[in-house]
Write a structure and sequence with these properties.
rod-shaped, alpha+beta, about 150 residues, about 20% strand
Length: about 150
């Protein structure tokens, strides 16, 4: 055992007296953020994130549209749309009868879902004015005597 310790000490002395030659330790990062083209790296990461967010949003919108389309395809929804169309057709028929029928009046006003429809006959024309809920106005002038068949 003593012999082993002496050999070990001799080896350490020889190593410590000799010139040790080694290269300095240098560490290089492999992450592009720490090298010359960091901006391009950050932009590519940001681009990937934006694409993923847009994809998720697009999928959510498509799912919502699909659910809305399924709701509109039910028999009850079809029935209500049909009833609503018939009611509006009946209202428009009554309005036209008031403007051009045998017992027509010279003016009138009706309100439908916040929209005000007013008509005024001046002998040659019927002026139909529609005022929306937001105040936008549409005016239609119809000549009375030109509706002949």
């Amino acid at each position: 055992m003593r012999q082993v310790i002496h050999n070990l000490i001799k080896t350490l002395i020889v190593i410590s007296l000799s010139n040790v030659i080694a290269s300095p330790f240098t560490h290089e990062f492999s992450n592009p953020s720490f090298q010359g083209n960091a901006g391009a790296h950050w932009l590519s990461i940001e681009e990937k994130l934006l694409k993923k967010k847009a994809e998720i949003k697009s999928k959510a919108e498509a799912e919502a549209e699909r659910e809305e389309a399924l709701k509109n395809k039910t028999n009850v929804a079809k029935f209500f749309k049909n009833v609503e169309a018939r009611i509006y057709a009946q209202l428009s028929k009554q309005l036209v009868d008031q403007m051009f029928g045998e017992d027509s009046s010279n003016s009138g006003t009706v309100e439908i879902e916040g929209n005000t429809i007013t008509y005024l006959k001046d002998g040659t024309n019927v002026t139909l004015t529609v005022v929306n809920e937001d105040g936008a106005t549409t005016e239609i002038i119809l000549p009375i005597n030109s509706f002949t068949f």
